Amino acid sequence: MKFLVDVGVGKKVENWLTENGYDVRSVRDIDSCARDSQIVKWAFDDQRMIITMDKDFGELVFNTGNQHAGVLILRLEDADGDTKVKVVKNILSNYSDRLNSNFCVYQDGKLRIRT
After folding, report:
1. DSSP string, the chain
2. pLDDT value at position 41?
3. Model confidence at 23: pLDDT above 80
4. Is 25 in contact with 3 (CB distance < 8 Å)?
5. Which one of 11, 19, 75, 111 has the lowest number of neighbouring Cβ atoms within 10 Å?
6. b/e sequence 67-97, b meaning 16+ C-beta within 10 Å
């Protein structure tokens, strides 16, 4: 799987994904001030799933029908990097075959996947 990790997700998640063989690009390394619409375009052009903590992506891709290669929104307010890694690891271990090109939200210990 290929991912584009948004700035708010953090370096620990980026590093864990890379160390575990995932193809990862980071918004912080491309342009940390990029608009959400630009992030969606980059991810779609490169067929990368976006991992973000920014719920505005829901409006951009799910409600408006914009093309995307998948979005995973982590609703983990005040979570530290280790907690984020644990959640991402769990999601990928249990749902990786269902994530591609879907809109996913993790909140309160549950993952919702919408096609």
Report:
1. -EEEE-GGG-HHHHHHHHHTT-EEEEHHHHHTT--HHHHHHHHHHTT-EEEES-THHIIIIIIS----S-EEEEE-TT--HHHHHHHHHHHHHHHHHHHTT-EEEEETTEEEEE-
2. 93
3. yes
4. yes
5. 19
6. ebbbbbbbebeeeeeeebbebbeebbeeeee
| Residue that the structure tokens 């920014």 belong to | 54
* Placement of tokens 């271990």 in the chain: 93
- Quote the tokens at residue 78: 């005040």
Nearest to 72 by CA among 47, 89, 97, 55: 55
Domain layout of the chain by residue ranges: 2-114
The reported pLDDT for the residue numbered 9 is: 97
